What does this fold into?
Amino acid sequence: MWTGIAGILAGGLLIAGQALTWRTPDTEDDDAIREVVTFYSKDSNQALSETAALLLLAAGLAFLCFLPVLVRAAGSRSTAALAGGTVFVVLLMVSAIAGNIYGITANQADVFRVVPETALIAILLLDVAYGGLIGAMVGAAVLLLAIWRTTRTTRGTEGVTVLPSWLAWAALVVGVLCLAGPFSAWLTPMLLAVWLVAAGVVVMLKRS
It folds into this structure.
């Protein structure tokens, strides 16, 4: 039951954290430096960075507690599932830190100023964060596709070992979208989060 709760928490926290990161300034715009300075000059947005980082880090920890269930669901492909899940957590945390450390530093350090010169650092860190998120979703894809393949070929001996068919097909859809890299990484964390919530609910119901 507790592992199911961990899955629901991981999904919920990931949704909340990603929703906050969507508010960060566009670094590809010609006016990116001005947008970055304007955005991070606000105390509310600096606090937002701290909140987003904490939510995403907590989501990663909750996911680690749920990962053993997903690895068991992958059956003979458990090694691939474990590797994919681990890559996802590590790169998610790297992305959370890189994408929010500029705002956190501006909020906590009096000597750090949000000016055009330091805004270049923010742009670099935001790009690193998105790159980390792309890598994290590739890891998630490996995990999801391993679960889908196993669930389609094995019925399992324990009720929680093999996930329902509909959840396996959902894993396939989300996993394929995760492989689209920079074209989908802004959306697939949300889709994965919804899938984790559903998987957590299923695990809770089967163990109740």
Summary: The chain is about 80% helix and 0% strand.
